[in-house]
Structure formats: C-alpha cells, structure tokens
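Quick one:
INPUT:
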C-alpha cells in the first residue's frame, strides 16, 4: 500500500506544477520527474493524473469544511465564529495559492462525479459561513448572507494575484477587509 506521505508529496507537487502550467500542460512524466520517480511509478500511488487532480480538490474541500466546522464549534459566539472562519480562510489562502489557481483554472478537467463531490463540499463550507454570519446579522436572509460570504471568498481567494505585501501584513489586511465586508 502506498504511503500517505508519498501521496501527499505527489499531490503537493502536482498542485505547484498544475498552477504553473495548467493541468493539461503537465504530463505524468513531468509529475514523476518533479517527485523524483519515473512517470509510470506514479501509478503505484494514483490510477491516473485525473485521480491526482481529484484527490487534490476533494481533499482540500474536505479540509476547509472540517476545519471551518471545528473553528465555529470552538468559538464562543457568532462574532468569534465569523472571525475564526475569516482567520482560517486567510491562512488557507496564503498557504495554498497554487490550489486556488488549480481550482479556478482546472475545474473543468475534473470528472463529473468528482466535480459534483467538490461542489457539495464547497456548498457545505459556504453554509457554515452563512450560518455564522446570520448569527451576527440576523436581518440577512440566506441568499443575501450567501452573496456576502461568496464576495468575501472572492477577496480572500484573490491571494495568488494580490498578495504583494509581507505575509504578516497581507494576513492582517485580508482579515480586516473580509471581516469588515461581512459586517458592513
């Protein structure tokens, strides 16, 4: 059975390569070479390049949802939950810029069943945000709260293109702007 750490290394390397060149611009041989193995050796860990992309985007969607739920559960009130979600997503966006690029650009390359799975996970993650926002701003109906949250995601997920400051300053700026937009 392939080790999880090797699979994780392959997924991380693929994220970087896919972000740089696009999913279709990276061959199995390219991916293998970047991981220090032959292209065919990757098939011991993944059935196909599609499977690497699928694990990458399903895995990060599961992680966002799991961590978002945990942070809300650990928060004392709605405002703290919202701040915790913003903090978590800022952390994610700054640390995983390549995944944001891959998600944005290579989404159509996912098989339909995987795309449906990722979309379901993403909708659940958005619902965690919507529920937290509505605890702080009960005057918002669900569609309006959803639009607010998705606009905040647009800001936070702009990091591959907008992160021009030091990571510390960018973290503070994004957190402050996202929270202010949600509470406006």
């Amino acid at each position: 059975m392939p080790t999880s750490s090797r699979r994780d290394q392959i997924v991380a390397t693929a994220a970087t390569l896919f972000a740089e060149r696009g999913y279709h611009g990276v061959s199995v041989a390219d991916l293998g070479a970047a991981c220090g193995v032959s292209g065919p050796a990757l098939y011991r860990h993944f059935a196909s390049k599609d499977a690497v992309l699928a694990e990458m985007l399903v895995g990060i969607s599961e992680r966002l949802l799991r961590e978002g739920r945990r942070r809300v559960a650990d928060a004392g009130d709605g405002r703290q939950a919202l701040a915790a979600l913003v903090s978590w997503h800022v952390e994610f966006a700054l640390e995983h810029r390549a995944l944001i690029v891959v998600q944005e650009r290579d989404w159509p390359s996912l098989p339909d069943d995987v795309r449906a799975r990722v979309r379901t996970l993403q909708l659940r993650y958005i619902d965690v945000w919507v529920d937290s926002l509505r605890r702080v701003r009960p005057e918002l109906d669900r569609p309006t709260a959803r639009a607010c949250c998705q606009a905040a995601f647009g800001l936070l997920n702009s990091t591959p293109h907008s992160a021009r400051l030091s990571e510390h300053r960018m973290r503070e700026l994004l957190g402050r702007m996202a929270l202010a937009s949600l509470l406006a």
